[in-house]
Design brief:
heterodimer, A: Gyrase A, domain 2, Elongation Factor Tu (Ef-tu), domain 3, 2 domains, 6-stranded antiparallel β-barrel, 8 helices, B: alpha+beta, OB fold (Dihydrolipoamide Acetyltransferase, E2P), 6-stranded antiparallel beta sheet, 3-stranded antiparallel beta sheet, about 25% helix, about 35% strand
């Protein structure tokens, strides 16, 4: 990464983005492509139909190693890390003492170490958190010399397999190391679009060559953050700082599935993470409010911050939209937000206030569009 | 054709003024996904927010350029908001208004002035 003259950092693919006609915006301290010449709508649809290449090098890559590292990490997260098999990855969350979410991330068991991918805006926090809370026997090693590229969509496997035939054998959430032109690539079959695909950690000095090799393939197009946001929203996936943060618990956020049985009440390694009492109680008794999907009536997007009411006039807000946009693959607006448990059942009609007018929306299941993971 | 600092274009058709947004505005907005049109026969004051254009990025207001009455709206935009990107100066006109003081229209920028304005 190099300084841009401002306070914003650049990824190693910055020049490539510029060459591809990207419109750059500040995001999490980086200058990132929000869209390329195709535009957000077409980039979104291209990813669902073919394959999209995303620069996600701004995200934090961190290696944890040392004796008992998996058990040590379990003291910070409600997920089973010790139960994660070698060559596998899972979704995890750091919680605080109140059960709020400090960040969400991916953790992979790569044999003699754990490999974490954390949110860009939270990487400094997370690294300090890990260093402060893990025992001295665990080494926290931020990876600064690798880029991260996501390739997502139905054509992702075919495209990547032209460079690395072995990826065809990987299933959803597998991780593996494969060579490309003598370079070691750390590959996971995962992503954040609801599509089948891969995230590939590549040595920074070869990242541009690797990206160009993929972009040279007919089905692969560069995709910006704008489409990444609408893709993950349609897939019902949370964006940290919007749909989840320190004020939301994993259970309120509908992420209870990420808490394996072994960490729940009655499990062999129940609790033992920050906020366990509240989180485990909410798992058993249900939370007071829940993250829901919302399908606004009409075509007007119901965006983040829109207040939700249980009546079309008067009253006080009962909830708030945390992400909302037009869903290009749905052909209609979609949103997520929090509602009291009593209003969170599918089919419940609520009202979002936009520009002084109440607009109806129906509580919907998530995801809005079934995922296409290669399980 | 005249242009406002709000990136609207104004075209006089008889005693009516047709209003749309400029190519520059459409480009800045990105893909338009929704246009909220005013009701016909609405009397508006200058700078009233009368139209909302939602793109994949954000919502923007279109202001009434002058005082008058909305007499026609382009309902094609309801079903096909993408017209704003495809043909902002033509098919994607947004509304037509009846204006008493047509001289007020002359005060807006001409094409060269607008080009300078957007730099």
């Amino acid at each position: 990464m190099a300084d841009s003259g401002s306070d914003l950092a650049r990824t190693v693919l910055y020049d490539l983005h510029a060459e591809l006609g990207a419109k750059m915006v500040p995001f999490a301290g980086y200058e990132m492509p929000v869209q390329y010449s195709m535009g957000v709508l077409k980039e979104h649809l291209h990813t669902r139909a073919h394959a999209g290449l995303f620069d996600v090098s701004h995200m934090g890559q961190v290696i944890l190693r040392g004796a008992g590292v998996a058990e040590a990490l379990e003291a910070l997260v409600p997920v089973s890390v010790a139960g994660l098999k070698e060559g596998r990855q899972r979704y995890a969350l750091f919680t605080n003492e109140d059960g709020g979410i400090l960040d969400d991330f991916m953790v992979a068991n790569r044999g003699d170490h754990l490999f974490l991918v954390v949110n860009a805006a939270r990487k400094a926090h997370d690294i300090a958190h890990l260093r402060g809370k893990l025992p001295d026997s665990v080494l926290v090693e931020p990876i600064e010399d690798r880029a991260l590229i996501a390739l997502q969509g139905p054509a992702a496997e075919g495209a990547l397999a032209l460079l690395i035939p072995e990826v065809g054998e990987m299933r959803f959430m597998d991780v593996a190391t494969h060579a490309w032109e003598g370079e070691e690539l750390w590959i996971s079959r995962s992503g954040y679009t609801g599509e089948d695909g891969f995230e590939i950690s590549v040595p920074a000095r070869r990242a541009e060559g690797f990206a160009r090799a993929l972009l040279a393939m007919e089905p692969v197009a560069p995709i910006g953050l704008g489409a990444r946001d609408s893709l993950r929203l349609e897939a019902g996936l949370c964006l940290y700082g919007h749909d989840i943060d320190t004020t939301t618990t994993p259970v309120e956020a509908g992420l209870g599935w990420a808490i394996q049985k072994v960490r729940r009440r009655g499990g062999d390694r129940a609790g033992g993470f920050p906020g366990a009492e509240r989180v485990l109680r909410e798992l058993d008794e249900g939370p007071a409010r829940r993250r829901v999907g919302l399908r606004p009536e009409g075509r007007a997007p119901m965006r983040e911050g829109v207040e939700l009411f249980d009546t079309d006039a008067g009253g006080t807000p009962v909830g708030r939209v945390t992400s909302g946009a037009f869903g290009p693959s749905i052909g209609a607006p979609v949103a997520m937000g929090y509602l009291p448990a009593a209003l969170a059942d599918e089919g419940t009609r609520v009202f979002g206030e936009m520009r002084g007018k109440r607009h109806a929306a129906t509580v919907s299941g998530l995801p809005f569009r079934p995922a296409a993971y290669r399980k | 054709m005249k242009y406002t600092e709000e990136h609207e274009w104004l075209r006089v058709e008889g005693d009516l003024v047709v209003v749309g947004i400029t190519e520059h505005a459409a480009e800045q907005l990105g893909d338009v996904v929704f246009v909220e049109l005013p009701a016909r026969e609405t009397k508006v004051a200058k700078d009233d927010e009368i139209v909302v254009i939602e793109s994949v990025k954000a919502a923007s207001d279109i202001l009434a350029p002058v005082e008058g009455e909305i007499v026609e709206i382009n309902e094609a935009l309801t079903d096909n908001p993408g017209l704003v990107n495809e043909d902002p100066l033509g098919e994607a006109w947004i509304f037509k208004m009846k204006v008493e003081d047509m001289d007020a229209i002359d005060a807006f920028m001409d094409e060269d002035e607008y080009k300078d304005f957007i730099g």
